[in-house]
Specification:
By secondary structure, this protein is an alpha+beta fold. 43% of the residues lie in helices and 9% in strands. It has a domain of 117 residues. A 4-stranded mixed beta sheet has the order 1-4-2-3. Strand 2 and strand 3 form a beta hairpin. The longest helix is centred in the N-terminal third of the chain and has 18 residues. It starts with 25 loop residues before the first helix and ends with a strand. The N terminus is likely disordered. Belongs to the TSR2 family. This is Pre-rRNA-processing protein TSR2. Keywords: rRNA processing.
Length: 213
């Protein structure tokens, strides 16, 4: 796990006098993976909405950092983790920690992005994979993503709201740099089974958030 909080991994250095790029060390590759996971999760509209609305309680933003650490720890425990297992883990954490049922299958893209990042770092030792994610994160204000949010209370909830992507000026509240990741206290051994997405009459798939009691 990374021991420093910074905006991303530093570029690979060069051998003194020789001008030959030095390969990244295992520690630098792990740090890059940690940062890349944080960026990938931060780009997930469902998680962004959950953090924006503090569905994880007062410690919501800390939970997002913990979430990234939990995914990193999951790879450490299970290096050959499959796409679907990671997707189910992402859904489980969203439900357990953020009271949010993601039903638009957006976890598929997030999971594949993270596994693709790991492959480029481990097999190709390519730190550019993390820089690509950081650029996407920095430019996320330009994203326009249609997400239907439906909040459920103990009784009947409201009709929900539509959310059209990240807004400019949210860096300070939501966190603008990848922090030091917090080790996960425990990683579930068996992710839950994915549920089929629910589509409403307007053709929207749903991201369902349950307000904390």
């Amino acid at each position: 796990m990374s021991s420093q909080a910074q905006s991303g991994p530093t570029p690979t250095g060069s051998a003194s006098g020789g001008g030959v790029a030095l390969p990244p060390t295992p520690e630098k590759l792990q740090q890059a993976l940690d940062h890349g996971i944080w960026y990938a999760l931060s780009l997930w509209p469902a998680l962004h909405v959950a953090c924006q609305n503090h569905w994880g309680g007062e410690a919501t933003l800390d939970k997002k950092d913990w979430f990234a650490g939990a995914v990193s720890d999951l790879f450490t425990a299970r290096p050959d983790l499959h796409y679907e297992e990671l997707e189910c883990f992402l859904l489980q954490v969203m439900q357990d920690e953020f009271d949010c049922n993601v039903e638009d299958e957006s976890e598929v893209e997030v999971g594949r992005t993270i596994i693709g990042l790991k492959k480029r770092l481990v097999e190709e030792r390519d730190l550019g994979a993390v820089r690509d994610l950081e650029v996407r994160f920095r430019n996320r204000g330009q994203m326009k993503v249609d997400v239907k949010v439906v909040e459920h209370e103990e009784e009947d909830g409201d009709d929900g709201e539509e959310w059209e992507g990240f807004q400019d000026g949210e860096d300070e509240e939501m966190g603008g740099v990848a922090p030091q990741l917090v080790p996960a206290a425990a990683v579930p051994a068996v992710p839950r089974v994915k549920e089929e997405p629910e589509v409403d009459d307007d053709g929207f798939t749903k991201v369902v958030g349950k307000k904390k009691r």
